[in-house]
Amino acid sequence: MAENTASALCYVLGLITGIIFLVLAPYNQNRNIRFHAFQSIFFHVGLIIIWMGLFIVGFALPGVLHLLLLPIDLLLWFGGFLLWLYLMYKAYNNQRVVLPIVGPIAEKQAYSGNI
Question: Is a pLDDT exceeding 60 seen at residue 59?
Answer without folding.
Answer: yes
